[in-house]
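Q: I have 123 residues here and want to know how they pack in 3D. Can you give me a structure?
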Amino acid sequence: MAMLPGPGSARCEHGQATVAFVAVVPALVLVALALIQLALAGYATIAAGTAARAAARADYVGDDARRAARRALPPGLRDGIEVEAGPEGVEVEIEAPRALPVGGPIPVSASTRLGPADGLPGG
């Protein structure tokens, strides 16, 4: 009859799965938060591109580019927007939302140019 290892034997592994789980969970949470942060930065970059196009259209027809860019952004991204409009085009810079409580702000920007050479009818 085979004997099972007892508490004093070298093969006792009670609680090893719990220790491994406790060691892995913080790393998994950190990886998940980093992926969420990456997705938020991508979302903010797309939103900045949309705002830059709206600002370029407004600037081309003589309206306020900054106001057009703010209107094109979701409410959560409107704080801290920077809009630069000039003859080279329009650049919009915003801060991506934060998923991680550490580190500084993550600025993202997009720029675009709109003018007669871009195929506007009558432009």
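Q: Anything worth noting?
A: Residues 27-118 form one domain. The chain has a mean pLDDT of 85.
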